[in-house]
Structures are given as C-alpha cells and as structure tokens.
UniProtKB/TrEMBL annotation:
Keyword Nucleotide-binding: yes
NCBIfam families cross-referenced by the UniProt entry: mevDPdecarb
UniProt feature coiled coil, ranges: none
Lineage: Bacteria, Bacillati, Bacillota, Bacilli, Lactobacillales
InterPro entries with a match to the protein in the record: GHMP_kinase_C_sf (IPR036554), Mev_decarb (IPR005935), Mev_diP_decarb (IPR029765), MVD-like_N (IPR053859), Mvd1_C (IPR041431), Ribosomal_Su5_D2-typ_SF (IPR020568), Ribsml_uS5_D2-typ_fold_subgr (IPR014721)
Enzyme Commission designation: 4.1.1.33
Gene name for this UniProt entry: mvaD
Organism from which the protein derives: Lactobacillus melliventris
Domain called Mvd1 C-terminal: residue spans: 173-305
Protein name as annotated: diphosphomevalonate decarboxylase
Family under the similarity heading: Belongs to the diphosphomevalonate decarboxylase family.
Top-level EC class: lyase
Pfam families according to UniProt: MDD_C, MVD-like_N
Length: 319
C-alpha cells in the first residue's frame, strides 16, 4: 500500500513575486509565510501502467498534467529512478484561485515521490525539491512561520522554520469571494510584474520588510505584523497595476473587502488584509475580533463563505 502525503497551504506575509531563474524557480526576494491548518493537499504516488495525474477524482490532461510530469521527470533524473507513475491528489483548497493550492500541491507531491521511491531527505532537502514545482511550496514543508531565503543558486535557495508552533494569537480569515480558477497563473503574473518601473524599488525594500516582520513575530506584535503584511501585499498589487501592460487580480468585490477592513479598523476592530494572486482576501485578526469581523463580512457579502484558519502543521505521511 502506497502512503499518502499531506501538506498544508501557506500564505505569505512577505511575498515572493518574481524570479531570477525561471526553470530552477530561484526567487528575486526572500519571503515569509504562515502555514494554515484549514487548507491542505493529500497526494499519493504509485507505479502505473502509464503516467497519469488524477486531481479530485478527475484524470487531468493538458497544462496541469504537463506541470506535474515535468516536475516528476526532474526528480526522477536527479535520483536516477525510473518508471511510469500514477499521481492521485485531492485538494482541500480551491485550485488556482489565489488560495495557494500550488504551495500544498507541490510540497505534497515532492513528499509522495520520495515516499514511493524510499528516498529519505531532510526538511531542507525536501524544501529545495518542492521549490522546483512551485516556489511557495518550499515553505509548506514546515508548520507555523517559515522563511524562504532566496539564496544565490539551487543549493542555497530553500525554506526553513522560523517558529513551527507559534504561540501568537493570529487568525487568518479567508473570505471566499470567488473560487474559480484564475486566468493568469502566478507563474505568468509574476513574470509580467517584473516589467513594472516599481519592481526594482519594491525589491530593494524586501530585506528590510522581512527583517521587520521577523522582529514583529518575535515581539508578538500583532499590529506591526498586520500593518506590514498589508503594506507588502499592496506593494505587490501596485507592481501588477504598473506592469507594462498593467493587470490586476482584484475584482470589484476585492475592493469592497479592502474598504471594509479599513472601516472595521476605524470602528476599533483591529484587522489587516493580505491578498495573493487572485481576487480572494485574507484577513489577519485576533480571536477576540473574529466574530465581529465575520458578522460584518457575511452581512455585506450576502452569506459569503469565510474560513477561520490559524497555524497549521508541516508535511506529514498519513496511514
Ligand atoms: P494558486 O494560487 O492556487 O497557488 P497557481 O497559479 O500558483 O495558483 O497554481 C495553480 C496550479 O497548480 C494549477 O493550475 C495546477 O497546475 C497546479 N496544482 C494545483 N493543485 C495541484 C495538485 N493537487 N497537484 C498537482 N498540481 C496542482
Ligand atoms: C502571490 O509559488 O504559486 O502567492 O513558483 O511560479 O509556482 P510559482 O509561483 P507561486 O507564487 C506564489 C505567489 C504569491 C506570494 C507567495 O506565496 O509568496
Ligand atoms: Co501558487
């Protein structure tokens, strides 16, 4: 019986949004994330009569099949192993909607590949491998807070745990405004973003923002963490708007949600937002305010689904 590997999604508080090397997925900046308890991917790799990729019970062809098997081919070459593979994966997160499905997906796939071939790796080695599938997946090896140090080559670009079991009261409310797959993948979006005149200035701020975020976490300073995460996300989306040609992942509902967060803050309900490559908004808050925030969002967005997530665990092998 082959084993299933589970990896949880992670949401970046300091974003990765640009590559120095496309094929190796070497980032232009370091990033910092929070792994979530409520969203994850379960993946099993077994020997097959032919290569096949099943996602949520449906056999895949085209781009998502290609992406999985070009990744697995790289891994097979690296470890000198062979054979057709059957990949069966279930996403407990909307796929390609800006809710970080690729982070849990490629962490779980790298893990399941190693389990299938009996390859034993350290967390750092697994993080490097997962990175080849999707950059953000490098961070999903760990629970709690993780940092992906950009590095200068394949060897030095990997993630490590900053704090796997944070004691901080940090809630991340995912407001599912639109669960449909996006038109522009993260891979394409960040490539386009690099044409913005604000891309370089943003990059120059990365190290300082990351250091400030680490300090906020260490000081258990929710206000600092939230305001910095919001600023960093807005910088990323400003870079998209000013790309040549410009684009945005925002939808009218996204703007409405941003304004609602500002409004709640004015009312003394402290919360901040972050947004990734999709229209959905994630609200950073503390336990005492979750009820009020949820109530207001549900009334303004007509029964929208809101998931209250907090810190999740690192990668694990089930059964
Ligand atoms: P997201 O915001 O969900 O991370 P991306 O554009 O980064 O969006 O990545 C989405 C792509 O990741 C999908 O189109 C698919 O190719 C791949 N993917 C998502 N889930 C899985 C999975 N469970 N197994 C393999 N590949 C997956
Ligand atoms: C906005 O890791 O999905 O979520 O490496 O091309 O697969 P690829 O991109 P991906 O990009 C994630 C972008 C982000 C920010 C982040 O997670 O750091
Ligand atoms: Co992604």
């Amino acid at each position: 019986m082959e084993k299933t590997v589970r990896a949880h999604t992670n949401i970046a508080l300091i974003k990765y949004w640009g590559k120095a090397n496309q094929s190796l997925r070497l980032p232009l900046m370091s990033s910092l994330s929070m792994t979530l308890d409520q969203f994850y991917t379960d993946t099993k790799v077994s020997a097959g009569p032919k290569n096949q990729f099943w996602l949520n019970g449906v056999e895949q062809s085209g781009q998502s099949y290609q992406r999985v098997f070009s990744f697995l081919k790289l891994l097979q070459e690296k470890f000198g192993v062979k054979g057709n593979l059957k990949v069966e994966s279930v996403n407990h997160v909307p796929t390609a909607a800006g809710l970080a499905s690729s982070s849990s997906a490629f962490a779980a796939l790298a893990g399941a590949f190693c389990v299938h071939y009996g390859i034993n790796l350290s967390a750092v080695e697994l993080s490097r491998l997962a990175r080849w599938g999707s950059g953000s997946a490098s961070r999903s090896i760990y629970g709690g807070f993780a940092i992906w140090q950009k590095g200068i080559d394949n060897e030095s670009s990997y993630a490590y745990a900053l704090d796997e079991k944070p004691q901080m009261d940090l809630q991340l409310l995912v407001v599912e405004l639109n669960k449909n797959p996006k038109e522009l993948s993260s891979t394409q979006g960040m490539k386009q973003a690099q044409t913005s005149p604000f891309f370089r200035p943003w990059l120059e701020r990365n190290q300082a923002e990351l250091a400030q975020m680490v300090a906020a976490i260490k000081a258990n300073d929710f206000s600092k963490l939230g305001s910095l995460a919001e600023l960093n996300a807005c910088e990323m989306h400003a870079v998209n708007l000013t790309a040549q040609p410009g684009f945005t992942y925002f939808e009218p509902a996204t703007i409405k949600a941003i304004k609602l967060v500002a409004d709640l803050r004015r009312l003394g309900i402290e919360c901040y937002f972050t947004i990734d490559a999709g229209p959905n908004i994630k609200i950073l808050s503390q336990l005492k305010n979750v009820k009020d925030i949820t109530k207001r969002f549900v009334s303004e967005f007509h029964n929208v689904n809101i998931i209250n997530a907090s810190f999740g665990p690192g990668i694990s092998c089930l059964n």
